[in-house]
Amino acid sequence: AVERVELNDGTAMPRLGLGVFQAGVDEAAAAVRTALLAGYRMVDTAAVYGNEAGVGRGIADSGVPREDVFVVTKVWNDDQGYDATLRAFDASAARLGLDHVDQYLIHWPRPRLDLYPETWRALCRLRAEGRVRSIGVSNFAPEHIDRLIAESGTAPAVNQIELHPGLHQGGLRAYHASRGIATQAWSPLGRGQGFLSHRAVAAVAEAHGRTPAQVVLRWHLQMGVVPLPKSVTPERIRGNLDVFGFELDATEMDLITGVGDGYHVGPDPSLLFDIS
Ligand code: A2P
């Protein structure tokens, strides 16, 4: 079984999950089924991915009991605001075929809309009603999270951010630690781009007889980050979970950290905040 981490709301969240960004409905269904049969217990999707129905089907097809699976989805920018978010949640739950969701996140803060505090109030209500077990945010900066805490008295359980060997998010991780917020990583492999073939990563992989992806995922785990690697390839899905039986030493951690910092493979929130 995948190890779990206890969140600031008392929920136990698996330490690694499957991402399904850019997977089609059928692809997502097959990937989720494969992942759950391989031992994954967390799946991360979003309304905007358009594949929640596939995620729900994959869970059902796997035969793994619903209560053993930690399902994460997110409210999209267009549905921010109190009432719109409550409606968006119902629609996501219906597509997933689930009566409750384990974790519901605000996908982006979109500070210029100035709706994220209202959106957060809706998430607090969904949690109070038991329709969502845990609530959090994604792509938020400290100032946005501090505003949520000040206005609602409730801190997000997680902030899901871009994080990989080319982007370490040291400042945000320190902030999260100071507020008891867990860090989830999207694109933990850097979208399978150059970082996996970097010679430092290759050297560490070789030393352990592991794949580059496995040592990168190990790097996340040892920093206390919860990675959400995306794959629709069965062999990769299985390999990406097989990361609990070995350990990197401090030198190897530093080698992977030394790959670089400041390289975004997805939208950079700090640039978006100025325009949206
Ligand atoms: P695919 O889904 O075709 O298997 P990230 O999670 O960092 O965004 O990375 C996702 C990308 O990395 C996808 O293109 C995925 O391809 C690829 N990928 C996932 N796992 C591995 C792996 N173990 N080795 C190489 N590439 C991988």
TrEMBL record:
InterPro entries, sorted: AKR, Aldo/ket_reductase_CS, NAD(P)_OxRdtase_dom_sf, NADP_OxRdtase_dom
Pfam families per UniProt: Aldo_ket_red
Keywords: NADP, Oxidoreductase
Domain named NADP-dependent oxidoreductase: residues: 16-259
Active-site residues (renumbered): Y49
GO molecular function: oxidoreductase activity, acting on the CH-OH group of donors, NAD or NADP as acceptor
Gene3D superfamilies named among the record's database cross-references: NADP-dependent oxidoreductase domain (3.20.20.100)
Site entry: Lowers pKa of active site Tyr: K74
Binding-site residues, substrate: H107
Domain of life: Bacteria
Family: Belongs to the aldo/keto reductase family.
Protein name per its UniProtKB record: Diketogulonate reductase-like aldo/keto reductase
Source species taxonomy: Bacteria, Bacillati, Actinomycetota, Actinomycetes, Streptosporangiales
